[in-house]
Amino acid sequence: MKSIEIKDLSLNFGDLKVLENLNLDITDGEFLVLLGASGCGKSTLLNCIAGLLDISDGQIFIKGNNVTWKEPKDRGIGMVFQSYALYPQMSVEGNLSFGLKNAGVPRAEIAERVARAAAVLQIEPLLKRKPSQLSGGQRQRVAIGRALVREVDVFLFDEPLSNLDAKLRAELRVEIKRLHQRLSNTMIYVTHDQIEALTLADRIAIMRDGKVQQLDTPHVIYNHPVNKYVAGFIGSPGMNFMQGKLNGGDKPRFATGQLNVDLTRYNFENGHALDGSDAWLGVRPEHVSVGQEATQKAFSHEVAVEVVEPMGSDTLVWTTLADQEFRFRMDGQKSVEVGETLNIGFDPVSASVFDIQTENRL
Amino acid sequence: MTTMEAIGPRPKRILDPTRIMIYSVLIVAALYYLLPLYVMIMTSLKGMPEIRLGNIFSPPVEVTFEPWIKAWDTACTGLYCEGLKVGFWNSVQILIPSVIISIAIASVNGYALSFWRFRGAEVFFTILIFGSFIPYQVMLYPLVIITRELGIFGSLAGVIFIHTIFGMPILTLLFRNYFASLPQELFKAARVDGAGFWGVFLKIMVPMSPPIFVVAIILQVTGIWNDFLFGVIFAGTKNFPMTVQLNNIVNTTQGVKEYNVNMAATILTGGVPLLIYFLSGKYFVRGIAAGAVKG
Amino acid sequence: MANQDRPNPYFRNLNAKVAATPMILTTMIVFVGCSLWTVIYSFSASRALPVNEFVGFAQYERLFNTSRWNKSVENIAFYGIFSLVFSLVVGFVLAAFMDQKIRFENTFRTIYLYPFALSFIVTGVVWQWILNPTLGLQEAVRSLGWESFTFDLIADRDTVIYALLIAGIWQGTGFVMALMLAGLRAVDDEIWKAARVDGIPKWKTYIFVVIPMMRGVFITTLVIIASGIVRLYDLVVAMTAGGPGIASEVPAKYVYDFMFARANVGQALAASTVMLTTVLIILIPWIYLEYGKKKKG
User: Fold this and answer.
1) Inter-chain touch C7–A69, beta carbons under 8 Å
2) Are A36 and A227 in contact (CB under 8 A)?
């Protein structure tokens, strides 16, 4: 069943089109992540769903109800903000119960719901404290609790972990995932952090300039990005892009400089390659093999090591392939020196080819 | 001569000539600023014969509080000789409602401008801010006509009305800037929690804003207490504020000038804003700095 | 399909609009309406009461043929330029000295700023007494033995304006100092570190780096004190009442006297329109600068 349905949603600020003809269906209990660089419209979309921004055109349905013109409080949503947005002068308990008091929920029920949410989030000892007496992680837990007590079907998260340090972020990420598994509410989660997106999402919507670029499972997005933007955005370190030409007819090849990459095993979107067209070949640094292993790949070549970035578990090596910058990952335990020559190779099946004009996947 | 090897903390020069120059300038300036306060106090504690000897700087040989009592109780302002106390209570009566009404209106205004923007709001606000630079004299006569038509010219209500109007630009600016500095997400969270226009204001924003209310109160109390022009025109003879009465006492042409009484009256009139200033320190600075912050 | 009422755009944000009504009324009726009324009726033949008989520039002709008005304009121009330059320079220098991590900074600031908490009436009365030619400062110095010492600014037609300046500057320089100090504190600390590493002397850093960076603070301060100077009134009333003769008259006092004491509303309105024009000449370039900046940014 559909939990949220967005139909032809547009939002303009004067002449500026922030969101354009956006359509989105979210099923019940789904965890959807809106991912994109800052200014792509992801937070704006979330605010539209929450009713905090008035849209210019289109419709929004939550649980089958048209909520397009409804007040935020009447939409059946709970929201968690980046800055936590806790009411500073109220205790944790006051923060949790403020919305329920406004809705005229009986006192006994408020107490019950607050207790339940506090138990779920393990914040019972904090109930009498003021937000200023809490740590960042505790504050974010309270903010989630505020959404929890509303007992709504849809949770909206607006970059909830961005203000936390890396360690705490990882902890709370898991906790949000656990919470979702336990409550199975629909959750929409806005972030610019791809790790958060990949780890949490059932599906990810990658946005750019107010449009959804790709909406799919993390697996598909990582392995089959629909365009060069998505390919470059997902994955860290980013994908290598080499510019070249497609040719070879039935036995398609990607030619760049003196190099030829055999694409016979690559699955073209429309079944075959467009002979003679310019294209990008995208290869993820982690899909590159080194040394003995490399010679067994469909493509292999010898390169000189230029820069070495050790990162602990693995090492990122910078080199040049066909006069273009190229990075690859290798085991962090193996030693590698600048100037050393290495054999590298990859399998075109795991690569991506994009049209040079439209930047769409071929 | 042996050169000392540089080790440990760098030796400090105790009498750095630049520092001496800086402190001298600051102290001389401070003396200029303090001089009138000193003269005021000394003169107010002397008897007239001692004043006629002609050294305003000398401390009183014989301290007397007679001038203070006279200034408060019996000094003549034109025809009446009831002292400054009348003006003091008039000022209090003008001050309290003016401060409350102007701050109530401006805080709601600033809040609406920060969180509930509607079409045209910014235009009115901009005119309001630039309007505050227009000399009062330009608007005086029409305001006399308006207050007369409303039946409040020459009354407490009239002068309170005028103070509310002319306090609006700076106070609205103050509150708007303060509320704009609060996180928008707090406002959004409160709306998701079902609070409306007044709910957000009274339950979330006001409890977060005591400092800015203090700044606004200081700004208004000193501003209204020190006002002369509006008091003399709009309050009516019976309700003249303290500043107007002080001027009448000092610059009355009848009788012998009693400088000690004049100075006692001056200290009494300046006392309220001075007290507020000394007690509030950094809030006062924040209030006047708010005037310089652009909208 | 939509089983709800489309919100009427005029009633959206209704509470906010109701709350802003006092501001809207003040803006439109007082700041715009009253100013326009004054400008329009400054062209009328109004005497004791405003009348609808319009006489073109007759009031202005009379105004600029009145020696008291011309003296007022001359005075305010002189007073304005002197107090602007003086308070900006002294205010900045004091602020720069205060910014040298000095001891007792709070005490100094409290001393410099307290006159600003006092009204112009109090200021005028105090300085009138200090400058009193028979019993004030002059007599005090003479009694110390310097018999020929003269300091009777306030009693002399040619110098009375300096007396006003001394009092006005005493009252207002602390304010300029406070604004400048706030401006100096807003300058990034790393600018100072960079200048120190580069070996640039402090005074040079102030003149070539810090002051240009504080352009905005200077302009804002200038506009605020300039528009305050135009309405100078209370100080004159309390200190000199415009005398000796008409030697210390100012435009704001001219307006008040003609409006309420002399029952010549037409003259008062023409005079206040001239004041308005002066303020606009100060304001418009400033507004232009402000808005020009915003558009580019």
Assistant:
1) yes
2) no
Q: How far apart are CA C267 and CA C261, in angstroms?
A: 12
Give the model confidence (pLDDT) of A146-192 as tens digits.
999 988 889 999 999 988 888 888 989 999 999 999 888 899 999 99
Query: Pick from A199, A233, A267: which residue ends a domain?
Result: A233
The answer to whether residue B256 is domain-embedded is yes
pLDDT at residue number A225 = 93
- Number of structural domains, chain B? 2
Quick one: closest CA in C to B229, which residue? C234
What is the extent of the structural domain holding A76? Answer: 2-233
Do B188 and A52 lie within an 8 Å CB cutoff? yes
Q: Is A333 exposed, middle or buried (0-12, 13-18, 19+ CB in 10 A)?
A: exposed
**In this complex, which of B29, B131, B165 lies closest to C112 when CB atoms are compared?**
B29
Task: Give the residue among A67, C13, A50 at the shortest CA–CA distance from B188.
Answer: A50
Please give the average per-residue pLDDT across B33-42, as a whole number. 92
CATH of the domain at B148: 1.10.3720.10
Q: How far is A34 from chain B (nearest CA, A)?
A: 19
Distance from CA of B42 to the nearest CA of C (A): 12
> pLDDT per residue over C42-97, tens digit each?
998 888 888 888 888 888 999 999 999 999 999 999 999 999 999 999 999 999 99
Give the homologous superfamily in CATH for domain C68-296: MetI-like (1.10.3720.10)
Instruction: For residue range B188-232, list pLDDT tens digits in order.
Output: 999 999 888 999 999 999 999 988 898 899 889 989 999 999 999
**pLDDT digits 0-9 by tens, A171-181:** 899 999 999 99
**Do B46 and B100 belong together in one domain?**
no
Structural tokens at position C30: 């007082």
**Whether residue B214 is found in the same domain as residue B286:** yes
Distances (CA, A) of C192 to A297, B21, B22, C210, C217: 59, 21, 19, 9, 19
Last residue of a domain, one of A233, A248, A279: A233
The predicted pLDDT at position C293 comes to 61
Q: What is the DSSP string of chain B?
A: -PPPP--SSPPPPSS-HHHHHHHHHHHHHHHHHHHHHHHHHHHHTS-HHHHHT--TTSPPSS---HHHHHHHHT--BTTB---THHHHHHHHHHHHHHHHHHHHHHHHHHHHHHHS--TTHHHHHHHHHHHTTS-HHHHHHHHHHHHHHTT-TTSHHHHHHHHHHHHHHHHHHHHHHHHHHS-HHHHHHHHHTT--HHHIIIIIIHHH-HHHHHHHHHHHHHHHHH--HHHHHHS-GGG--HHHHHHHHHT--SS---HHHHHHHHHHHHHHHHHHHHHHTHHHHHHHHHHHS--
Question: What's the domain range around B200?
Answer: 85-292
Residue A313 belongs to a domain: yes
Give the model's confidence band at B2: pLDDT under 50 very low, under 70 low, under 90 confident, else very high. low
Burial class (CB in 10 A: 0-12, 13-18, 19+), A89: middle
pLDDT value at position C5?
55
- Asked if residue C296 has pLDDT above 50, the reply is no
C1 touches chain A (CB under 8 A): yes
Asked whether residue A200 falls in the same domain as residue A63, the answer is yes
Query: How would residue C9 be classed by pLDDT, with cut points 50, 70 and 90?
Result: low
- The CATH number of whichever domain residue A87 belongs to comes to 3.40.50.300
Asked if A273 and A263 count as a contact pair (C-beta separation under 8 A), the reply is yes
Q: Is B105 left (phi over 0), alpha (psi -120 to 50) or beta?
A: alpha
Burial of B253 per CB tally in 10 Å (0-12, 13-18, 19+): exposed
Q: Is residue B132's pLDDT more than 90?
A: no
CB contact under 8 A, B185 and A89: no
Tally of domains within chain A: 2
